[in-house]
Specification:
A: 141 residues, alpha+beta, B: alpha/beta, Transcription Regulator spoIIAA
């Protein structure tokens, strides 16, 4: 796993694999349920569900799948729902470019990363060519 | 049969097709729906399509692109598409996501969507005279 610093206390709520298109749907529904249980409003539930849907699709399309960790934690005084997506795909060559609006990859669409970033409170990404990509997003409760 | 294999119904009423999307679609299902609707347009010679997304709890970039692609394809086949019933939370999220859906007509509910299609068809009739 690529290192993303873990300077917060958290509790693991669930661990899932994204291997098929069905998994994208079921795991995003699970995350919505966690968001609902955490007391988030309908708009925030929709934001985090949509953001993870973009990330899961990237893992499925570009890396053939990956793993998802869902945690509940305290970050900088906020109660947060934390979702970490880890894949061992080809990695992203130019992160700055992939994070810029309007960028499209060879498949005729972008990674949806800048959009996903706007929907959450914190967005971290690490990527290494031929090793994989790790994205961690957080939404304050 | 689980919910993922469930076929999304396409209902024909007079000159219109009504498509109530009532499942959280995966990508392949969204692409299948697109071609099913186009085939139904050709088969029934429908003049308008109402796609009801009132129970959809999220529209991500893929489904958004599918819906706008659908509208452009139908337009080439001389058919208008109106997306009806988008939930407020979905609309907010789509805008924040930065997804533009150019050329896509939307209406608050099925009734307003139907009125919109009827207005369009009437204007078109006048234009042809």
């Amino acid at each position: 796993m690529l290192d993303i610093t873990c300077d917060f206390k958290s509790e693991l709520l669930g661990k899932f694999a994204i291997e098929t298109e069905y998994d994208i749907v079921t795991v995003r529904q699970t995350i919505r349920q966690f968001a609902k249980d955490a007391g988030m409003g309908i708009v925030d539930q929709t934001r985090i569900t949509t953001a993870v849907s973009e990330l899961f699709r990237n893992m499925y399309n570009y890396a053939g799948g990956g793993k998802v960790f869902i945690e509940s934690g305290d970050v900088e005084g906020h109660h947060a729902l934390i979702v970490t997506c880890i894949d061992h795909g080809p990695g992203i060559e130019n992160l700055d470019l992939a994070m810029s609006d309007g960028y499209t990859s060879g498949m005729g669409m972008g990674y949806g990363l800048p959009g996903a970033k706007r929907l959450v409170d914190r967005f971290e990404i690490q990527s290494k060519l031929n090793e994989g990509t790790t994205v961690r997003i957080m939404k304050w409760k | 049969m689980n919910q993922y294999e469930k076929r999304i119904p396409i209902i024909k009423i007079h000159d219109y097709l009504i498509v109530p999307i009532q499942v959280d679609m995966h990508d392949k299902q969204a692409i299948q729906l697109q071609s099913q609707i186009l085939e139904e347009i050709a088969r029934t010679r429908a003049k308008g399509v109402l796609i009801d997304i009132s129970v959809l709890e999220m529209v991500d970039s893929f489904i958004g692109r599918m819906l706008s692609g659908m509208a452009s394809m139908a337009a080439i086949m001389d058919t208008s598409v109106v997306i009806v019933g988008m939930q407020p939370a979905v609309a907010i999220t789509l805008v924040e996501l930065g997804l533009e859906m150019p050329g896509v007509d939307t209406a608050l509910n099925m009734e307003k969507g139907m009125e919109m299609l009827e207005r369009k068809l009437n204007t078109r009739k006048i234009d042809t005279y």
